[in-house]
Amino acid sequence: DQQVKQNSPSLSVQEGRISILNCDYTNSMFDYFLWYKKYPAEGPTFLISISSIKDKNEDGRFTVFLNKSAKHLSLHIVPSQPGDSAVYFCAASASNQGAQKLVFGQGTRLTINP
Amino acid sequence: NAGVMQNPRHLVRRRGQEARLRCSPMKGHSHVYWYRQLPEEGLKFMVYLQKENIIDESGMPKERFSAEFPKEGPSILRIQQVVRGDSAAYFCASSPGATSGNTIYFGEGSWLTVV
């Protein structure tokens, strides 16, 4: 059972435009959400996180939005840069099910075109 | 992910051999996690350890896989009698604590190839 889903395997965006990556989850006990970025042959790099008590968190060019009623979160990158080209993973955890036991989506490959 | 050190980065084993993957957490982190990424899939939780204790091994295959985090030295993920299906990237991560809000930081991974 895929508790965290990233339905778009890939996304292509023009440099300077906004990139929007989406993630859906099914487990209503999830209360902490993270986005990681991964380059080939490297480990995931933490980007930004959000607690379920918030609906938005912003850090520079990255903003994460959480819609609890829809069990949906999204990552906005603006403006997109060529160095943003990577695979992006959404992850979630539940405090009462092991706070650090992250459940990952399958990833979305983002390509920024110059 | 600077600071979580994994080795070897690449390991080739023949079927039936043993694979040992090592992980040193970031300085000041006492919680270690192992995740596995199969080709074209997301990362899957395997095990969560603190020094000398396995806290959660619900993601570990019941046979052939074991993990430890001794009082001294790195955490070790051990795979006995490897099979082709064990070929994957194995990522270690660490955190200072275990509550929500303690983001975990990943190492660069160990790529196991079973031939």
How would you portray this structure in words?
With 114 residues, chain A is an all-beta fold. In chain A, 0% of the residues lie in helices and 53% in strands. Chain A has no helices and 11 strands. Chain A has strands at residues 4-5, 10-14, 19-25, 32-38, 45-51, 56-59, 62-67, 72-77, 86-93, 103-104, 108-113. The N and C termini of chain A lie far apart (38 Å). In chain B, 0% of the residues lie in helices and 49% in strands. In chain B, strand 7 and strand 8 form a beta hairpin. Chain B has 115 residues and is an all-beta fold. The interface between A and B is medium-sized, with 28 and 32 residues.
Which features does this protein show?
heterodimer; A: about 110 residues; mainly beta; six-stranded mixed beta sheet; five-stranded antiparallel beta sheet; about 0% helix; globular; B: about 120 residues; seven-stranded mixed beta sheet; four-stranded antiparallel beta sheet
